[in-house]
Amino acid sequence: MTPGKSAEGDKPGNGGGSIAPLRIDTADFEQRVVAMKASTGDYRGLRANDKGVFFLAGEDGGPASLQFLALDADEPKAVSKRIASYVLSADGNKLLLRRGGDFAIVDASPDVDFDEGKLDLSDMRLRVDPHVEWQQMYVDGWRILRDWFYDEGHHGQDWDAIRAQYQPLVDDVASRADLDYIFSELAGELNSGHVYVQSGDESGPDRQAGGLLGAEIVADPSGYYRVEHVFPGNNWENGFRSPLTEPGSTVAEGSYILAVDGVDTRSVKNFYRLLEAKGDQQVALRVNSHPNQSGARTVRVTTLTSETSLRYLDWVRSRRAMVDELSGGRIGYIHVPNTAVEGSRELFRGMVAYASKDALILDDRFNGGGFIPDRLIELLARQPLNYWKSRGLDPNATPLLSHVGPKAMLINGLSSSGGDALPYYFRKLGLGPLIGTRTWGGLIGISGNPGLADGGTVLAATFSFMDTDGHWAVENEGVAPDIEVIDRPDAIAAGRDPSLERAVDLLLKQLQAKPPKPVVAPPAPTEFPPQ
Fold first, then answer.
1. Residue 204 CB neighbours (<10 A)
2. H or E, element range at 517
């Protein structure tokens, strides 16, 4: 970058100084790159001054540390710990640091003291005129969709006319929720998925979470409450903790809960009245195998604030058991909840667990999307390149995560976004039939855009799906099944799963028509070279 002198800087009224614009010399740019002496790592928020580079680095999964690597240094030095974010001043001499809700201005150098530069914001006031702010945010929201939406033609809409159409409504906005309604109408004009309106600075009540036990609790004729079903969890994962199955707090199905924190359960018409405002707290349960106090014991459990993950895990386990029973143990079942972290983890684990199964059912129903699932489909499409034989063990394949048997994928109307893409790729690669109902049809994406003044957001879809023949596909259309099966509510209520049952039946017929051949190692060679 070469500084130059600006003629504007010498004109009267410009303070007598000169403005030095930057010129980027692109020729041979890559040859002038110099690697700094930094080890590999997760570097975020890189900003540089003339002495070196500032960056945020995580500390064993905890709060980030702001560090500085000088141009001539062998290793970075700590600037300040537990920093959520920071800004480097334009001249590169000062840093604005944020730690939680506290801010500090310090020198842009290593080993600064956050507390010495801490800003006293106790008397800071901000005057907001909501009607003026709402008008500004309306224009900003309209501009975001104008400038970030993937199609500059806005799906055939006259975007200036759209602005004028809704502008008068903003004059009558009486609350932030009213503005969100207008944003939703504005976004709807694009006829596109993934254009989201997220609320900003809105007041609301402070809510106290109620307690949950990770179980179905039902009323009993005795007046007490009975544990009908306990949702098994993975107690080593906090998100899947099941209170009544933890060591020292085990409560079996069929047990009676006689009291909660000393209050007789017969005194309430709704059991959860006794757990009101007790979410994520320890409570004492008086339990017995019979609806009386004789022989009762007290257990202490820490409640949950949500059972969603436990109920999901219970549903997956019941599907897995159903497939195992219907197929005689020949078919593996993997539910892919999304195409983000959890879905990737479940597919990875399932591919390891069911590598030896004759066939696989991939359940994409209720898939919440996330990322573009190209890596997931690569796992499913892999074929063994060779096998390795070790002493006393069956041959194992390379790549390890691969499966050679027939497959089927289940889909429904809540297979969304990345959950639309996964079955599309599954069909394109010819991995097996799609069974169920048409997917959601939201295969268009977001990659971020500026927010609004009060912290709200209008998210614009910044890219959309095309097939390899150059046609728009899936968005506003979905992926249709090869075999339509409707999971009727009455069948589900009766404990059945029509889509899953159809997949098992289909795969068993394929296995019967083309039985799998086991991989058997021949005797080890005894002649060299082999004859």
1. 6
2. none
Q: CA distances (Å), 411 to each of 5, 333, 408, 481, 526, in order? A: 63, 14, 10, 7, 52
The CA-atom distances, in angstroms, between 127 and each of 131, 132, 133, 255, 453 are 12, 11, 11, 58, 13
What angle do the packed helices 498-513 and 308-327 form, to 10 degrees?
Answer: 30
Dihedral sign from CA coordinates of 370, 375, 379, 382:
positive
pLDDT digits (tens, 9 = 90+) for 364-398: 999 999 999 999 999 999 999 999 999 999 999 99
Distance CA 40, CA 262 (A): 56
45-59, 275-289, 321-335, 397-411 — which is least confidently predicted? 45-59
The rounded mean pLDDT for the chain is 92
Angle at 19 between CA 21 and CA 27, to 5 degrees: 15
Spatial CB neighbours of 187, under 8 Å, sequence gap ≥ 6:
145, 195, 196, 197, 458
Q: Which residues pair with 398 in a beta bridge?
A: 386
| Spatial distance between the Cα atoms of 394 and 308, rounded to a whole number of angstroms | 40
**Packing angle, helices 130-148 and 159-170, rounded to 10:** 160
pTM of the model: 0.84
Q: pLDDT value at position 116?
A: 93
Q: Give Cα 173 to chain centroid, integer Å.
A: 34
> Looking at 261-399, which runs of residues are DSSP E strands?
263-264, 282-288, 297-302, 331-335, 359-363, 386-388, 396-398
Determine phi and psi for 231, rounding to 5 degrees.
Answer: -80, 115
Contact 179, 170 (CB under 8 A): yes
Using the structure block, give the residue that is written with the tokens 């006689």.
Answer: 258
- In this prediction, residues 506-519 reach a mean pLDDT of 96
Alpha carbon distance 253, 231 (integer Å): 10
- Walk me through the domains of the chain, giving residue ranges and CATH numbers: 34-107 (2.40.10), 130-198 (3.30.750.44), 215-304 (2.30.42.10), 330-443+478-513 (3.90.226.10)
Determine the Cα–Cα distance for residues 66 and 82; give it in Å rounded to an integer. 8
Element (H, E) at 498: helix 498-513
**476 and 461 in contact (C-beta within 8 Å)?**
no
Q: What percent of the chain has pLDDT over 90?
A: 84
**Gap between the Cα atoms of 395 and 382, Å rounded:** 17
> How are beta strands 196-198 and 215-219 bridged, if at all?
unpaired
Q: What is the DSSP letter of 183?
A: H
Residue-wise over 396-409: b if at least 16 C-beta within 10 A, else e?
ebeeebbbebbbbb
Give pLDDT, residue 6.
40
* Closest by Cα among 255, 186, 248, 183 to 226: 255
Residues 6+ apart with CB under 8 A from 491: 497, 498
> Which long-range contacts does 21-30 make (Cβ < 8 Å, 24+ apart)?
25/1
Rounded to whole angstroms, the Cα distance separating 402 from 431 reads: 13
